[in-house]
Specification:
single chain; 185 residues; 26% strand; six-stranded antiparallel beta sheet; alpha+beta; two-stranded antiparallel ribbon; 6 helices
Length: 185
């Protein structure tokens, strides 16, 4: 069996790439309503995040705002599900397997890092996408003694999964093929 590495540890660096984990990343939570001319309260939240912006755009200064998504442990993900999806081992197994297969397009499952600081598999949440200025993100990342970086081809797989979620289209009516048609094939 081939043991292909999923992650690298990045130490004391503000170098950013797609697939970099930035724990406690400060993001701006937008208010529900913004009215022109009215002052709004801005909320800053710290989230455990992973970078989704393309590495080439980051390296070549093609973006000023970096896209990040939050991540949580698989255990935390399961605990947040409705009770029916976590009541039994069978239900948790089915949910986890569906997550692994990509059946939940709003989420992406990453392998459990083999590094001592990580105890569980990782679930990336595509339903909440945030932008953080690249210079601010470099400052936050540069202060970290060490952080995790997702390696190829797993970072491209993450990107592809994000693209599938982002580009999905809901049709007003699906194609209906009746059993009479199938019998006559």
């Amino acid at each position: 069996m081939n043991n292909y590495p999923w992650y690298n540890i990045i130490e004391n660096s503000d170098d950013l790439e797609q697939g970099d984990f930035v724990p406690e990343c400060p993001i701006v939570k937008p208010p529900e309503i913004i009215t022109e001319g009215v002052e709004v309260n801005i909320e800053i939240e710290l989230i455990d995040s992973i970078i989704l912006s393309q590495s080439c755009d980051l390296k070549n200064a093609k973006v000023s705002i970096t896209l990040v998504c939050p991540y949580i442990s698989l255990k935390e993900f399961i605990n947040q599900l409705p009770e029916d999806n976590r009541k039994t081992v069978k239900a948790k197994t089915k949910t986890t397997e569906n997550l692994r297969k990509g059946i939940f397009p709003g989420y992406h499952l990453l392998n459990k890092p083999s590094h001592a600081d990580w105890e569980d598999f990782i679930v990336v949440d595509f339903k909440n996408v945030y932008g953080i200025h690249v210079e601010n993100l470099k400052q936050v990342a540069g202060k970290l003694e060490k952080r995790l970086r997702l390696l190829s081809p797993y970072k491209e797989h993450l990107s592809q999964s994000f693209a599938r979620y982002f580009m999905r289209v809901g049709l007003p009516q699906d194609i209906i093929i009746g059993s009479d048609y199938i019998k006559n094939l």
